[in-house]
Structures are given as C-alpha cells and as structure tokens.
Batch of 2 targets.
Target 1
Amino acid sequence: MNASLSIVNPRVYTPINELYMHAEHLHAQSLSDLLGNDSACAQQRALSLVFTFGSLHVDFSKQRLTTETIGLLTAWAESCGLAAKRQALFAGAEVNPSEKRAALHVAARWPANEVPPRGMESAAAFCQYQRERMSEMVNRVHRGEWYGATGQAITDIVHIGVGGSDLGPKLISEALADRPSSIKVDVHYVSTMDGAQLLPLMENLNPATTLLVLASKSFTTADTQFNVRTALAWLSHALEVDEATVCRYQLIGVSSKPEKMTDFGIPEAQQLVFKEWIGGRFSLWSPIGISVAMQLGVECFDELLEGAHAMDKHFLETPFASNLPTLMALVGAWNSQFLNIPTHAVLPYDGRLKSLAAYLQQLEMESNGKSVGLDGRSVSHATCPILWGDVGPNGQHAFYQLLHQGSHTVSADFVAVAQRPVVACEKVTRALEAQEQLTLAHCLAQSQLFALGDDAIPQALRGLMAQGYRGNQPNSVVLLKTLDAWSMGALLALYEHKVFVQSVLWNLNPFDQPGVELGKQLATSLYQTLADEPVEHQNVEDPSTTQLLHKVNEWRKQRNDKGSS
Ligand code: F6P
C-alpha cells in the first residue's frame, strides 16, 4: 500500500506514515496483551478509553489501540482540517460539492430558543416553521379532528417511503413503541416496491380511517410512487370516491418538491416541506419524522430532537480527544484503514433496536461507501467497511460461531440498554428484570469473549471448557441508560457525526450517492421490456439476463393465462 497517497495536503504535517508503522507494531500485540491483565497500566488504559455523555456511555477499551494511537489519530484529524470543516458544516457551507449544496440536517433539530451559528439562521427558521406545521397536523389527528373522505376520524397512519424516508422513522417507532401513551393512532410502515407490505394492511385496516403519508424527498422514487398508487386505488375503490378526493382528505405529502406534490393532487395545507440541504439519510429530524410524532406525540419527537441537538453541541464544542463522534470515527477508520478489518457488525442487545443495523447501513455505506476523493483521485486504501448486523442475542444462535472460531476478523459495536422501566404486576416485573439482566450479561460476556478469546476463560475452568476462541476481535460497547427519545436522538446524531468525520479523514463527499442511480435506470428499460412496451434505451444484452427474462415471462404468462381462462 502506498501510504503517501493518503496525504491530503502535502504541506500540512500528517502522521499517516506513523500510523501505518504504529499499526505494524500493534499487530504483534493482542487484545489480551493490552487488556487482559490487572496491571496498573492496563487499568489506566481502560479508564482513559471510556466516555460518558448524558445517558450514553461508550467504551472503546476493547479496541486494538492504545492512548498513543488515539494521540496519533487525533493529530491526523487535525491535519485533515476537521475543526474548520466541522465549522463549515454547521455554518451551511457547500459541503456537498457534487450537488452544490449545504448539509444542514443539524438545523432541523436546532431549538427555537437558541441562537443558531452564523450561516444557519434562515435554515433553522425554515425548519422551525415546518416543525410547527407538522405539530398542528399531528395534534389535529390526535384530537380526532382530522376526518377522512367519508367523515370519520383517523385511527391509522400508513407511512410510505423508502431508504432515508423510511428507515429512521421506522427505527424510532419500533424503539419507543413500549412508551406508555394515551395516543390511539397506529402507524404502519411500507417501503418494499413489490407491494407485499401493503397487502395485509389493505386487508386489515379500515379504509375510512386510514391516513397515508407519502414521504419522498425527490418525489420521484419508483418504490414509493408505485406503493402510493396502489394505496390510493385501494382507498378509492373501498370508499367509492375518486383518487383526487382521497388525496384531498387522506394524504399528507412530505418532500423537498412542493410543486410535484401539488401536481400529484396534495393540497398545500397537507404538504410538509424540507429543503434540498437535508440529505435523505439525514432526514429523520425533518417532517419525514411525522409518523413518529403521530405514533408517540409531538413532545416525544421534540425529546428526540433535543437528544440529537445535545450531541451536535458536544460535537461542535468538545476537543477531539474527548469528542465522542470524532473518537468513534477515528476508531472506525483505524480498524478499516490501518488494521485492514473489512467488515463491521452492529449488535444491539435489545429487540426494540432490531432495525438499528439497517438504519446504520444506509447512513454509513451510502455516505462513505466511495473510493474517489473530493479531489477526483482514487483513494488507495480501504474506506467505509461493510456494515451489517442483527439483534445480538439472536445472532448468538446464528452467525456468532463464525465470529468466534471462523477465519474472518470483524469489528463490532455492541449496543445495550441498562434499564427498562416496566409497568406490570410485580411478578411480571421481576420476570422481565431477570430477562434484562440476562441480556446484559450476555452482551458483556460476548464483548469480552470477542476481545480476549480463550483468555477470557477463568483459570479454574481452563482445560475443562472447549477452547479455540480466537479473540482479538476489536469491539466497542455503547451503553444507554434507558431507551428513551433523548438517548435515541443522541445515539443517531453520534453516528451521523461519526460518518462526517470519517468523510473528512478520507476526503470523501458523504452527502451524495451517485452509485445508486445506474441500477434504477437499467430497471426502467427492463420494466418496459417485461411489459412488452417499446424501450427507449435498450440495455446491453447478456445471455444471463436474457434467459432470466424468458423464464420470468414464461411464468408470469402462465398466471395471466389462468386469470383470463
Ligand atoms: O437509495 C437512494 C435514495 O436516494 C436514498 O438516498 C434515499 O433516502 C432514498 O433513495 C429515498 O429517496 P426519496 O426520499 O427521494 O424517495
């Protein structure tokens, strides 16, 4: 690997070469060497790699690094101009040059009573205005004063969106669903383009009391447009009104394209707008989050924004050596670029976080899954790792075998929740507390086993227990005091800023996604081919795709023939 190619500006000192040498040196040491003894030095190291911020506690002490590594990494961040770039992000500078825009998702969570940084003022005011409009809509539904086309009050929301217009709100809805609430509105998420998630909803929901939320920044995404068309057909048929009437009574649009919403037939009063400068995968905080507020209340949504804002301020104001998002980014870059660890697992030890890995996959891989720098040159080292994961305790019965005894090195984030308030009878409360304890014990045991391998086995049991745990798998533990809206806001903002810092380290634009476009274009012409329509731009033919098209046509024709006979 040519380390010198990573130097962004040759006139600025950068410790890249020292970091590569340091990595060589650390390769010879295992996590057991660094962590697995009681020496004062090991104790000190562990303590200096642990950070608490509000209700978040992050432990980096099972990472394959030392305080010297952190020193070199923070010097690297400084040499990349992180402080100035962080300032530019919050000031609304054009940090997304390919699309010529700012990235001001932080404005969407800036509180009304706090002066925003210079450059963010009008963005924060616009977001505040839309937030108020969103709150009015939500409160109207909650008061039972939003009536459908046949005059009945709304009981169910079907949120239709995909990617950033789906993953964030869905994750929060699932994470906080057990929050005690008097709200009687149910929220359902639909994202897959095949209509499979819509089918059971159309069978089970009352069409007269269902409100659709069409969430799409671009308002052109086929997945969402097709789902909405199907849902409108259902409501129109079931309520015996035309689709334009359904749009007037039972459709809210959330998009950055108000003119497209108007063309579609959504009345202006039912349009919520966010601007181009909020990227899809950063849009949870904008009115894209309306379904969270519908399910959990405006107050809860505000708490989510408060948690994210607290993390913004921490990121903006805290020196790098104790700045959580910066440290998380540096640790991730260290694993990927210097220790050559190609995949990163996200392992939440809480069923309510079952969609966390999917959310972070889009956030991290769509942002930094790139290998051409802002200067147009190819990057010569690894950038964003492949991120994957599942609920940890379930993963223990599936893929952990490979992690412990297979041949791959993997880094991981364990995410756990220390306590869950339970409202139940005493007996059930005790039973649930025991389950909470069991889950936490498993999380900590796995984190230890990942790091130490066989060396985690107590002396007295050595020789008795099956051995051969490789260990040396670096991992962090992110512990949340409780799973509440504030903590979720802070947690997701932590990862957002991690992504930004890594983009600075790797000199990437984290705010565009050119790589997802071509697939959509190729699908358009194949869609026409399948419909036997004239194709504007014929795809390049290849024998594999041709035979698949034949088979698909043959089997679809059989269904169609059956239908018509
Ligand atoms: O997958 C590409 C993408 O553009 C994402 O970045 C975005 O979150 C998703 O599609 C949905 O886009 P939209 O909100 O414009 O429908």
Target 2
Amino acid sequence: MHIDPLEKKWIQISLGMVSLFMGIIMIDALFHGVNAPSNVETIDSRKIHLSEEFAEENLGVQVAENGDITVRMVAGRYAFFPKHITLPAETKVTFRWVSMDVLHGVHMPMTNMSTMIVPGYVSQIESSFPRPGEYPMLCNEYCGLGHDHMWSKALVIEKEEWEAMRAKQAAALNITATADEESNNE
Ligand code: CUA
C-alpha cells in the first residue's frame, strides 16, 4: 500500500502524541496516585444524620487505634461540614465524602483531591499533603445559587505539631471525664 510520505509523517506525529498523553496518564496514575474515583458504596442521603458513620459527632478527623486517619465530610448547600479541619503533613489520609442534598464536587488545589459527591454514594479518596499550609476545599459542580460560596478549609500542620495537638485534646477530654466522674460521685 502506498502512503504519501507527508501523510506517514503526520501518522507518526499523531501516534507519538497519543503515546505521550497515555504515558503522562500512566505516570500520574502509578506514581502520583492520581486516579479516577472508583469507590462504589451507597448510602441513604436522606438519613445521613441518622447513620452511624456520618452522624454529627463522627464527622471530621478520626484516628483509628492503628493510627489510620479518616476524614468524614458532608457536603450540603452551601458548605462542607465540618467547616475547618486540621491535618498532619506527609501522612496518608482517607477522605470519605457524602452529600446531604444535591450533586456537589470537591477540589483541593495542588492535591489529588478532586471528586464528584453524588447523593446516594460515598466518595472515597486517599490523599496526603506534602507541605503544611492552608488548603481550600472548593465545590466544583454547580449546585445552586450559592455554589460559588461553597468552600471550607483544611489546615495542614507539621506532623509533630499535629500529634502534640491531639495529645493535648485527649488530655483535656480526660480531665473533663474525670471531673464529671468526681462530680457524679459526690
Ligand atoms: Cu456545591 Cu457547587
């Protein structure tokens, strides 16, 4: 089959471009952890506040006994709840997002955090923050008149600082718990 040399050149260029883009996608996926969210887990959006996992007292940053950090967040017109969270830098964090009303999205610039939050589903993403600083969480799916005001903040601090903060909070909780016990005993 005869192929015009100029046409051949353009076929090569276009194949080269496709390979380049595929390569970039593969490097991002395999080495930078940038993946399409694929967690399929359903939840009844009307009963989120009654569910155990996303009840108000379980929202925000939770540390399991083995040290794993999970952040549970609820998106609703027009904010992410809780409004402020504090996280350690250079640590793996698992985010679990649910919507209590309509379709939202969340985007945290300079991180791999970008997912739709579809009512009825739990969106789960693993992330980590290499540098301390203030990271905004922005809604990136049009969800109503207040859409462009829909954002919250994550404060990322040094790991040691974060651990010290946790220890202090735990100690404060212990003090109130003992104080309560004592007043009950009186
Ligand atoms: Cu929520 Cu836009």
